Amino acid sequence: MTDTANKQNNHYKPNWKDRVADNDNPFMMIAAIVIFAILAALALKLIQVNLMPYMKVLGLPEFKPSNTPIVGWAMDLLHLLYFATGAVILWFLVNLAQVIWILIALDRRAHRTAVREARKELDRQGSQHESDGQIRKLKRRATRVPFFFIAASGWIALAAFVAEFLINLKAYPPIRSWNAFIAGLTIGDLSPINFNQVAAILWGCFSTELVIIALIIVGQWIWSHKNADN
């Protein structure tokens, strides 16, 4: 039996050379898993760093992190969870609110249910024309009710970003002297601004979400590769 005939056989399993030739490189899965593991390890350190402004705002004592990668970072998180429970819980709730719109955006089942409920509402309303503008407005609003959780998640995330910005602003004040800052504005002198503090604020506000998005992207890559058609 020839190679072509073997490949047409339903029980034929291509070897790794054939898979590479067909652009189904098995090493891509290994690369994706390694990247995902690296991101997960960095997330341990990232959480610990981003907890610092919450601890400052709550008046908790300064924490000295471990210099041991991964294992030390994990132990640091356990230590913080025990000694700074309030800061951990507050950080978790704020950041969960920030990423909830991402989780909802990826929930295809929830989207299908919302579409189905909206169609049911349209079917209940029928095609009868209403002359009253207020009634038409209420009917249109009723069809949007199943999608409320999608719209609300964006507002929740925005409020959470504002809250985290204020927390980081309190922990890392970017202006050394307001009098010097106001006077400097008139001559274009930006030296009263502590740009290291500004960078710390931006990092605290956006780094967690960026790592979560990266983890989701790589995780989806792994899932798609694993479930691809042979």
User: How many domains make up the coordinates?
Assistant: 1
Overall average residue pLDDT = 80
The rounded Rg comes to 26 Å
Helix-strand pattern: HHHHHHHHHHH
| Terminal Cα span | 21 Å
- Indicate the structural class: mainly alpha
Q: Main β-sheet: number of strands, strand sense, barrel status?
A: none
The portion of residues assigned to helices is over 70%
Shape: extended
Number of separate strands: 0
Strand coverage percent = under 5%
Could you name the ranges where pLDDT drops below 50 across 5 or more consecutive residues? none
Helices, by number, come to: 11
Topology readout:
Elements: H1 3-8, H2 16-21, H3 27-50, H4 52-57, H5 71-83, H6 85-105, H7 108-125, H8 133-144, H9 148-171, H10 178-185, H11 195-226
Helix pairs in contact: 3-5, 3-11, 5-6, 6-9, 6-11, 7-8, 9-11
Task: State the main characteristics.
mainly alpha; extended; 11 helices; 230 residues
Short description:
With 230 residues, the chain is an all-alpha fold.
What can you tell me about this protein's structure?
This protein is mostly helical and 230 residues long. It has one domain (21-226). The chain contains eleven helices and no strands. It has helices at 3-8, 16-21, 27-50, 52-57, 71-83, 85-105, 108-125, 133-144, 148-171, 178-185, 195-226. Helix 9 (148-171) packs antiparallel against helix 11. The longest helix is centred in the C-terminal third of the chain and has 32 residues, at 195-226. The protein is extended. The relative contact order is 0.12. The model has no long low-confidence stretch (mean pLDDT 80).
